[in-house]
Amino acid sequence: MSDLRAHHTGITVDDLDRSVEFYGDVLGFDVLDRFTVSGDAFATAVGVDGATGRFAHLDADGSRVELVEYDPAGEDVPTDEVNHSGAKHLGFAVEDVDAFYESLPDGVETLSEPQTTESGSRICFLRDPESNLVEIIEA
């Protein structure tokens, strides 16, 4: 067996352009690449007949975030709550969670103001335009 190493964290979105704008403008990530993949091999690999994927890869300080918009789009899966089985979130560190929170543009949905947990971590959660959870932790 070959050695595995992390390559990216992928998120399926309904509107690629809107999501790229959020991750670029709000979180400051740079777009590394944008591309489209289709064809029988891709459709077979992802298990979706006739699938086409529009992709954007973004640099999150050395960690690659992959956003993908599928055609055809799948059914919405309820992932509103972080405690649902199968729920996901992205986690990113900042030096000052409070300053980050204060700098968020109007209209960015947050779950709460920054909180200090029992373990001493200072965190806040927000949602991207597709309602995916993003955790910001002070580190």
Automatic annotation (TrEMBL):
GO MF: dioxygenase activity; lactoylglutathione lyase activity; metal ion binding; methylmalonyl-CoA epimerase activity
Q: Which InterPro entries match?
A: Glyas_Bleomycin-R_OHBP_Dase, Glyas_Fos-R_dOase_dom, Glyoxalase_1_CS, MMCE/EMCE_epimerase, VOC_core
Please give the start and end residues of each transmembrane region: none
Keyword terms: Dioxygenase, Metal-binding, Oxidoreductase
Q: Which GO terms describe its biological process?
A: L-methylmalonyl-CoA metabolic process
Top-level lineage group? Archaea
Specify one Pfam family.
Glyoxalase
Keyword flag Acetylation? no
Quote the SUPFAM superfamilies the UniProt record gives: Glyoxalase/Bleomycin resistance protein/Dihydroxybiphenyl dioxygenase
Output this protein's name: Catechol 2,3-dioxygenase
Domain VOC: from-to ranges:
5-139
Tell me yes or no: is Metal-binding among this UniProt entry's keywords: yes
